[in-house]
TrEMBL record, chains A, B, C:
NCBIfam families: TIGR00149_YjbQ (TIGR00149). This is YjbQ family protein. InterPro entries: UPF0047_YjbQ-like, YjbQ-like_sf. It comes from Staphylothermus marinus (strain ATCC 43588 / DSM 3639 / JCM 9404 / F1). Belongs to the UPF0047 family. Pfam families: YjbQ.
Amino acid sequence: MKVYTREIVLSTNKKFQLIDITYEVEKIVEDSGVKNGMVLVFAPHATAAIIANEHESGLMEDIITKIKELTEPGSSKWKHNLIDDNAHAHIGSALIGADRVFPVINGRLVRGTWQNIFLVEMDGPRSRRHVIVTVIGE
Amino acid sequence: MKVYTREIVLSTNKKFQLIDITYEVEKIVEDSGVKNGMVLVFAPHATAAIIANEHESGLMEDIITKIKELTEPGSSKWKHNLIDDNAHAHIGSALIGADRVFPVINGRLVRGTWQNIFLVEMDGPRSRRHVIVTVIGE
Amino acid sequence: MKVYTREIVLSTNKKFQLIDITYEVEKIVEDSGVKNGMVLVFAPHATAAIIANEHESGLMEDIITKIKELTEPGSSKWKHNLIDDNAHAHIGSALIGADRVFPVINGRLVRGTWQNIFLVEMDGPRSRRHVIVTVIGE
């Protein structure tokens, strides 16, 4: 059995942004030497999330629009905004989740044709966002 | 250590539909020979999702009602609808997630009494939807 | 390879409540002896969820406020409420998810500074809620 972990470090330049990390995750799976198993893509952040979906610019805007509607940035109803003006990002991260898991078959990460992997920035810009990729299998 | 993967192939016959795959997933866990570990239930689709909840027809309708309210099928505000009229399904898949992970104990998938496993179709009907089930453990 | 599973049993005393289980999960990871791998935190309940986010009382209230808005407790539009008055909790559990996965590196669960782990009670109070923690790795 093998366990292989590597970190992706990236920066974001907008308050809301989807950063495509598919290539980096696939490279880590390849480098891991794991033939069959699973891979965890995890963001150690309470104001970001991980999702899988299509890399189409209109849709990427739609996803951000929906996250804003769902989480209401700047709303005076959020008590956390009295401390730090990012309650929306915390709520988005909690509900969407900062972890996604994919199968690994024959040395490759399995995903649908339209499933690219994204870090969802909801409280940017940030100079250092991390994604931890853990591959486990044989 | 064992890794065992098998695919469930199914068709859907409505635009929105919950397909119960609990039995199939449990059978794969049983066939895997894994005694203790975990099982990943993964849909390689950007317009579907995987959830765990109660198989009660009223509730299954409620879940679909809520997904429609949350993702607004056909809305002119979705930019992706200029390309393909299914932005709602992409947004639902991204936010809900196409992966769910369950523990395996003593050779059985562990789930609550009311936690059946469903593929959530949001852009049907489709003649071929896939669910990849990966069991890992000892 | 090691697989180590333990159960946390807890009670809730409100209808909606976030119960911080970070310490218990970290202790299980430590006790597992797994140095590198991943850990699954899973609630075998269709009316609860698992999330990771900041333990700040205002934010914890905000998350509950958002879950109520999203799932509409007591709404007459939910068909499941004719059977059992908790459709909202089922919908919340289905959409948010009852599973979260974290990396394990050098014998420790990896999480962000502001990522505490919570059971989300949406249909309490309950005398016995369970969380199953499965650590897998080497």
